[in-house]
């Protein structure tokens, strides 16, 4: 007999599971109906079409239903569900519940399906004559996506992974034999602190909207091949591709901003396989946009345009296979682990690849491939060349990122390059140079035929000008210390910016419709300039070369010592600043460390002072998850990042004053006893202690004094590292016995006792306990300076504006047809 | 010859160049013995020897961390990492080091570790630690 478990809320899970099955079933139904609606020869029979629509709408409702059930479960902390237990906790703020959706694979598949449902509804409304074939493809994609969520056993294999699986089903543990096991599950595991960042609330939805929207150009291309309407799909595909490129690009840069802010990737871009996986389809789709425009304007490059559109979506699926199947394993920190969906994901890629290849082969003879060669001095030829180079850049990323795939396929044991960042930077810079150069001079060419003399004069004038500007930039930023290829990238990018600025200037004279591309190219150029300079000249400020104790064998380590040790209240000079760790504070769940920065001029006067508060998660369970704090200047950012520190666990937070009286002498060096008179000075390792006066009326809290009792306080002044503290330990005679009340000066690492009065020679005895170096409060931190990063961000914004303008323009053309 | 074909050939040439240079830039997963023999920078997979001491004392040097690792062939070696001790290092189940042999010590420039996740105890998560920041 099954055990009846107490306190479980099974209804939301059952409802959610029902919605999953319904979503899968209705998507499949919609796909089949749309398929027959497309192949149906009788234009008056609209029944298949209507059934397809109903199926898709039912799917949309179910997908929303899944989301609502999941939200209900997480919001109400129903930890009997594995998803809630694994990704949330009671203390998680409501707005981060959203983030917990994409900490797990199931939630991120749901997000993808959700966006695809939304976009599908846009198509129901907008696609008109294209609806049937296009929605067949979208429906198929939706069917496969929802199948990832099913999580039922089929022929001994689990198909998909459901977010509604119960904790006791997911994990085997003796505790689940008890019918009251829920009493012991007090809280969930909580959200990974790295995801508790506002960028993590908006970055994944944007990225997934970008991924999801790439089905639309793909679906149009397939529909065109399928229904033999070879030309009609191009115009809508341009608009939707521009949308995808814009959204996906924004999403990628948001992720980059998050990486930059949290320093989890040591900068804004680290060529992590997960990052690469998101750029790969972006590169091919941006190439596709260009070639589609070439085809629309000249009739050339039809096959290339189709190929790029098709491959882009297949690369989206391939990227999701890379990041979700666990295959990246040893090469990436950020990929999901396998949920047993390896082959499911492979099948997904193969189905769409198979459809695309089959249709292209079947229709090959009919394709409107132009037999003429393009003119050398025509815009279309060079746009085409540019697109091919974008494709090559993508090819390079795919080849290297897929190393674990090659290993799995061929049984090799290749490892990724040992210095991946440098490796990718150098390679991709070569492509970036060619591409930006093309994005520059192609602007001076016209479609079909151009006057060559004029073209050469203009492009050379601009090139010389760009070279001058580049020389200036290179000189000012010091980028010439790096690999020469980065200078070329800056040159190309500057050229691209200038050439497009000229086009933009022409726009003001009336050629308004060209504004979009010019603005987008300018943005892209600025983005590259910012990226190259920031990455190329960022430097660690906290280089440690003072006060180190040599460790045996240490000098053999060639690396620069980038972490610096700061004891509390002991200033250290670092890269033009005087840096002091001045204290810490707790604001659950974060442990903030205050670091004071001072810039002094020659006379020692303070010219600038600010406090940065890098933090670390104080939750003992999670260890040190550090978040940096940044001082933003217009032309550079200064990062401070705590890399090691004694983290206060939960116990010590509740501790505090109550533990004051316990014997903690073991935390100090052996005490040193000093006999002093008023005005005498005691020297200790870090400074001086002066006995200022004796206070005859010293009071100790909660201890009333009787007639004959005596209580004396020693007014002490402690001067250490230029800071003065006051302290007053107390000596007391009560009921004939002597007591003393020690006082601590935590900031100076001291404990002081007034241990005896020696009336004979008018002296008192002060016992000094000082903390050993290792027990003193300290942090180990790293400071990094990123110059000119604002070019990168502003370039992004300008590029997005350019895309928007282009979308408006292409939409107008769409309506004009 | 048509311009298109010339361009096509150039593209194919570049593609081949990409494959070859990428291949020559890959490193290999190796053992400590191979690392010692080759003296090249490569990846070593293994696990932490939890019986031996982990050394990290920020008071002495905040950039020196050493431990002992056993590679896949069972050979043990002292590893030195120029940086801070990664959190939860003791709990790691598998470590991937990037670096090279210097004398009898392996000097790691990057540590990638897998440890039982604190968030989902039935799964593994990974963390990566680099000795150097992102530089071009």
Supply Rg of chain B: 20 Å
Major sheet summary line of chain A = 6 strands, antiparallel
CATH class of chain B: Mainly Beta
Strand elements of chain B, count? 7
Find the CATH superfamily of chain B.
Nucleic acid-binding proteins
Write down the domain tally of chain B. 1
Gyration radius of chain A, in Å: 34 Å
Query: What structural category characterises the helix and strand content of chain B?
Result: alpha+beta
Tell me what portion of residues of chain B adopts beta-strand conformation: 35-45%
User: Which descriptor suits the 3D outline of chain B?
Assistant: elongated
Rough outline of chain A: flat
Order of helices and strands of chain B: HEHEEEEEE
Number of H/I helices of chain B: 2
Short summary of the structure?
The complex is a heterodimer of chains A (817) and B (136). With 817 residues, chain A is α+β, with helices and mostly antiparallel strands. In chain B, 22% of the residues lie in helices and 38% in strands.
């Amino acid at each position: 007999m099954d055990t009846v478990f107490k306190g479980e809320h099974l209804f939301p899970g059952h409802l959610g599971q029902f919605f999953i099955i319904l979503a899968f079933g209705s998507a499949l139904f919609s796909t089949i109906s749309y398929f027959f609606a497309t192949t149906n020869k009788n234009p008056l029979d609209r029944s298949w079409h209507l059934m397809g629509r109903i199926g898709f709408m039912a799917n949309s409702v179910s997908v929303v239903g899944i989301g609502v059930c999941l939200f209900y479960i997480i919001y109400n902390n129903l930890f009997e569900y594995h998803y809630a237990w694994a990704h949330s906790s009671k203390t998680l703020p409501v707005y981060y519940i959203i983030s917990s959706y994409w900490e797990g694979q199931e939630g991120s598949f749901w997000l993808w399906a959700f966006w695809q449902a939304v976009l599908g509804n846009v198509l129901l409304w907008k696609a008109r004559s294209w609806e049937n074939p296009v929605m067949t493809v979208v429906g198929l994609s939706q069917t496969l996506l929802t199948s990832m969520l099913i999580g039922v056993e089929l022929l001994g294999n689990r198909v998909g992974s459901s977010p509604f699986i119960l904790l006791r089903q997911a994990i085997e543990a003796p505790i689940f034999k008890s019918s009251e096991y829920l009493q012991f599950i007090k809280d969930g595991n909580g959200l990974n602190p790295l995801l508790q960042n506002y960028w993590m609330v908006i970055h994944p939805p944007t990225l997934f909207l970008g991924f999801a929207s790439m089905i639309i150009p793909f679906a149009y291309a397939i529909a065109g091949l399928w229904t033999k309407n070879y030309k009609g799909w191009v115009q809508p595909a341009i608009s939707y591709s521009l949308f995808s490129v814009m959204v996906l690009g924004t999403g990628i840069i948001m992720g980059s901003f998050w990486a930059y802010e949290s320093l989890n990737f040591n900068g804004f871009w680290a060529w992590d396989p997960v990052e690469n996986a998101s750029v790969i389809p972006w590169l091919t789709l941006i190439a596709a946009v260009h070639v589609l425009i070439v085809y629309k304007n000249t009739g050339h490059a039809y096959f290339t345009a189709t190929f790029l559109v098709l491959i882009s979506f297949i690369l989206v699926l391939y990227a999701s296979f890379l990041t979700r199947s666990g295959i990246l394993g040893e090469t990436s920190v950020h990929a999901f682990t396998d949920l047993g969906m390896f082959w499911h994901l492979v099948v997904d890629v193969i189905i769409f690849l198979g459809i695309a290849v089959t249709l292209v082969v079947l229709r090959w003879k009919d394709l409107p491939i132009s037999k003429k060669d393009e003119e050398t001095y025509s815009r279309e030829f060079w746009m085409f060349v540019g697109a091919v180079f974008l494709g090559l850049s993508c090819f390079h990323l795919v080849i290297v990122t897929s190393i674990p795939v090659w290993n799995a396929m061929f049984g090799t044991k290749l490892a990724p390059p040992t210095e991946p960042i440098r490796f990718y930077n150098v390679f991709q810079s070569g492509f970036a140079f060619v591409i930006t150069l093309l994005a520059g001079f192609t602007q001076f060419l016209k479609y079909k035929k151009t006057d060559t003399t004029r073209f050469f004069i203009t492009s050379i004038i601009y090139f010389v000008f760009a070279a001058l500007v580049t020389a200036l930039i290179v000189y000012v930023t010091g980028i010439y210390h790096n690999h020469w290829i980065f200078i070329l990238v800056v040159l190309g990018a500057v050229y691209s910016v200038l050439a497009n600025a000229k086009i933009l200037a022409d726009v003001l004279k009336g050629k308004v419709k060209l504004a979009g591309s010019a603005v987008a190219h300018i943005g892209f150029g600025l983005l590259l300039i910012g990226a190259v300079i920031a990455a190329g000249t960022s430097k660690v400020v906290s280089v440690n070369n003072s006060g180190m104790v040599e460790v045996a064998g240490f000098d053999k380590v060639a690396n620069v010592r980038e972490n610096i040790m700061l004891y509390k209240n002991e200033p250290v000079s670092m890269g033009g600043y005087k840096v002091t760790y001045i204290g810490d504070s707790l604001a659950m769940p974060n442990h903030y460390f205050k670091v004071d920065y001072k810039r002094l001029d020659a006379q020692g006067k303070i010219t600038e002072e600010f406090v940065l508060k890098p933090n670390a998660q104080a939750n003992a369970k999670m260890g040190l998850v550090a978040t940096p704090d940044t001082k933003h200047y217009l032309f550079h950012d200064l990062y401070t990042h705590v890399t090691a520190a004694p983290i206060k666990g939960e116990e010590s937070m509740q501790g505090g004053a109550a533990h004051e009286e316990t014997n903690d002498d073991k935390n100090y060096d052996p005490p040193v006893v000093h006999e002093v008179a008023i005005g005498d000075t005691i020297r200790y390792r870090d400074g001086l202690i002066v006995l200022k006066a004796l206070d005859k009326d010293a009071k100790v809290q909660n201890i009333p004094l009787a007639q004959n009792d005596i209580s004396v306080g020693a007014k002490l002044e402690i001067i250490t590292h230029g800071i003065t503290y006051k302290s007053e330990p107390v000596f007391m005679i009560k009921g004939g016995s002597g007591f003393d009340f020690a006082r601590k000066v935590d900031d100076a690492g001291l404990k002081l006792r007034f241990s005896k009065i020696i009336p004979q020679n008018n002296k008192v005895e002060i016992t000094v306990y000082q903390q050993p170096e290792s027990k003193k409060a300290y942090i180990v931190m790293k400071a990094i300076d990123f110059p000119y990063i604002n070019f990168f961000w502003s370039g992004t914004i300008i590029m997005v504006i350019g895309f928007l303008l282009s979308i408006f323009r292409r939409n107008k053309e769409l309506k004009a047809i | 010859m048509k311009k298109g074909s010339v361009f096509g050939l150039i593209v194919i040439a570049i593609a081949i160049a990409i494959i070859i240079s990428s291949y020559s830039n890959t490193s290999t997963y190796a053992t400590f013995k191979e690392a010692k023999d080759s003296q090249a920078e490569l990846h070593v997979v293994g696990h932490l020897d939890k019986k031996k001491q982990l050394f990290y004392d920020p008071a002495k040097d905040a950039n020196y961390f050493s431990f002992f690792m056993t590679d896949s062939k069972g050979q043990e070696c002292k590893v030195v990492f120029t940086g801070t001790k990664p959190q939860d290092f003791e709990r790691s189940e598998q470590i991937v080091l990037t670096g090279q042999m210097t004398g009898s010590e392996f000097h790691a420039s990057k540590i990638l570790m897998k440890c039982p996740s604190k968030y989902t105890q039935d799964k593994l998560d990974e963390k990566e630690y680099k000795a150097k920041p992102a530089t071009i």
